[in-house]
Write a structure and sequence with these properties.
Residues 254-269 form the CCHC-type domain. Keywords: Metal-binding, Zinc, Zinc-finger. This is CCHC-type domain-containing protein. Helix content is 52%, strand content 3%. It is mostly helical and 274 residues long. A two-stranded antiparallel ribbon has the order 1-2.
Amino acid sequence: MTTVPAQTSTPMGPLVGTQAAQTVANHAERPEKFSGLDFKRWQQKMLFYLTTLNLARFLTESPPAITDGDVQSISALEAWKHSEYLCRNYVLNGLVDALYNVHCKITTAKELWESFDKKYRTEDAGTKKFVVARFLDYKMVDTTTVLNQVQELQIILNDIHSEGMTLSETFQVAAMIEKLPPSWVDFKNYLKHKRKEMTVEDLVPIWWSMVNLPVGTKKKIDNYKGKGKGKGKVVDLGPKKGGVRKQVFQFKGKCYNCGEHGHRADKCKAPKQD
């Protein structure tokens, strides 16, 4: 009776190792090594990595209890220890050498994970103030494209959310508009006075429309609004005809009658020259 569990349990250790090795071979790159900064980000990446290896449970589990004389429970414990050993060393190998030397003496994956959480989460508390300061101090400039600066601002906003702080959609939109560079003041005022409530997604096509604008170039509000207004040519709007306004353009040439610029000879009010 006792020979059956012994035969079935013998290959459990090698089987677990083989499965883990196959999973690692098919897995993507490991998380970058933790150096003591951005703990929460590294912790999430490492947890995901261990989950794909079916080892994440050993970060919280204690060894299973065994029954004296029960060969199956003893074999299960040995298999558990093997997988727990892999989990612990995957975590340790995710540290830079200096931190590896500090934490390698911790004997279980659970104790190792808990020690990280206790030490580095406390240090991350100051990160919230740092991220908020980055957001408040961020100002767009005319020497860099607006799109790149908007993307940098979105990264800061994402960092704020990852720290557990929430900002309303309205606040985020208002902040992005307010931080536009000085040369975009007209466009900034145009967006600020729009009656329709805007979301961050509404701003995306606007930012993309700025991609091809040279650095330091002001945004032409009328182009965005679709009015097709020329550069100083339109001087008046004629009366409506059928609901459509007719644009009136000013003549820029020289009058042959009086020699002045801005009107034709047939429109000249000066006495006719012989």
